[in-house]
Specification:
CATH topology: Creatine Kinase, Chain A, domain 2
Number of strands: 18
Helix content: 40-55%
Number of helices: 17
Structural class: alpha+beta
Radius of gyration: 21 Å
């Protein structure tokens, strides 16, 4: 049972790995639309799709007889609130493996969606649907979240039902290593948002934002970029942050109970009558950590969450960019960002969804910093020197970002250009 701060610290310490054992985990979400009416698919259509994917060796995950996901080996497909689907990949050794996994999954997904007349949209925000047009599903936690989340952030329902992101999970080899990595990933959030911006169309119109998804997440309950994250945040300080963070819900046997009146500390102190004052275990802690929706967060690994979902051309670019920095060139990047002012970072973070590369940070625009960090990443991937069968290293996955920087044009701008010509919805769907 988790009854004190030290046990939370021990939980984070249990994630420590030797650097030779570092893994990479990628998660990416997709919107799904009926291609006959351009409406988001409902749960019954989702079930059809899951049934078809079972033919590729996936196994159903059930909640009270409802299929809410699939698994195969170390991979999971999970159902998001508005019937978006997310691949949570296996823990893999390098970007070659992680990218191959994504492509295998997407090959299977495309076979199934084609058969069922479903279109895929790889964007950070639903470019077509209004919020009230998005169908829900019977997954219990989402029903509870839909009631509670709007109380703490006006865009919370949009976050749940109309956003898609790409996440990267990375390891640490000590508390000191975690501190460095966490400070870097929080400091470069504005650059990440600018570089991977891909949510410029909202309700079939230009939104005047490049990453509308990021704007939504900034106005979401339990989200954002706390100032605390720019300090030398160790396991103890993060444990205190977690203890004093409000609960969203508690899973009690097969039921979900609102936790909005309580903090995790109340749970640890046995003060929650609704569950007969029982104490939390590791699963309860894991659930709580997964409901802290900040731009980055700590579990038994660090989860990076600031990238818009993107299409096939850039799917592996984000993970490669971060791995080059965090696994290949950590100290050099840390030396750079440690000179940055946290208030200026937060200001850039608030401006970047709209201004993109034109946002200023430390008297330079974000295009300058994106180029600088890409150079660092390339150097880091060269140092790793992990090659595929064609003897190419992981740098090959950065080609997309090099084009973005050379042309000063992100996926968001490409989407505006394509769609604006004749406002053809087909331009929004994956080809």
């Amino acid at each position: 049972m988790i009854t004190n701060k030290e046990k939370i610290i021990k939980y984070f310490e249990s994630g420590i790995k030797k650097s030779k054992d570092f893994k990479i985990g990628i998660e990416h979400e997709k919107f799904l639309f009926n291609n006959q009416n351009n409406k988001r698919i409902d749960y019954s259509k989702t079930k059809e799709m899951f049934a078809a994917l079972i033919e590729f060796g996936w196994n159903p995950i059930l909640e009270k007889k409802n299929v809410i996901g699939l698994n195969k080996g170390g991979k999971n497909i999970t159902l998001e609130p508005g019937n978006q689907i997310e691949l949570s990949g296996d823990k893999l050794n390098n970007i070659h493996e992680a990218c191959a996994e994504s492509y295998d999954y997407l090959f299977e997904l495309k076979q199934v969606t084609k058969k069922l007349n479903i279109n895929i949209v790889s964007a950070g925000f639903d470019p077509i649907s209004k919020l009230n047009e998005v169908p829900g599903n019977p997954k219990q936690r989402y029903k509870l979240m839909s009631k509670i989340m709007p109380l703490g952030g006006k865009s919370s329902l949009d976050m749940m039902y109309r956003t898609c992101g790409t996440q990267l999970n990375i390891d640490y080899d000590s508390e000191k290593d975690f501190i460095k990595k966490f400070k870097i990933v929080n400091s470069i959030v504005p650059i990440s948002i600018a570089l991977f911006a891909n949510s410029s169309i909202v309700e079939k119109k230009k939104s005047n934002y490049l990453s509308y998804r990021s704007k939504i997440w900034q106005n979401t309950s339990r989200g954002g970029l706390p100032k605390l994250f720019f300090e030398d945040l160790n396991f103890e300080k993060y444990a205190e942050y977690v203890m004093n963070f409000p609960l969203l819900f508690i899973k009690d046997k097969e039921n979900y109970i609102s936790g909005e009146k309580y903090t995790f500390k109340n749970f640890m102190d046995g003060q929650i009558n609704e569950i007969k004052n029982r104490l939390p275990d590791d699963i309860d802690l894991s659930t709580h950590l997964s409901t802290i929706f900040t731009e980055n967060r700590l579990k038994k690994y660090i989860e990076l969450r600031s990238m818009d979902t993107c299409g096939w051309d850039c799917l592996c670019a984000g993970p490669a960019f971060y791995i080059g920095i965090l696994y290949g060139n950590l100290d050099e990047v840390y030396e750079l960002i440690s000179k940055w002012d946290k208030d200026k970072i937060i200001n850039a973070y608030l401006e970047v969804p709209q201004k993109g590369f034109n946002t200023q940070l430390m008297n330079k625009d974000l295009l300058y910093w994106a180029k600088t960090l890409l150079d660092f990443s390339q150097k880091g991937l060269e140092k790793r020197d992990i090659v595929n069968k064609s003897r190419k290293n992981e740098n090959l996955f950065l080609n997309h970002l090099q084009k973005v920087i050379d042309n000063k044009t992100t996926n968001a701008e490409h989407m505006i250009n394509r769609f604006s010509k004749n406002e053809d919805l087909n331009e929004l769907y994956d080809k």
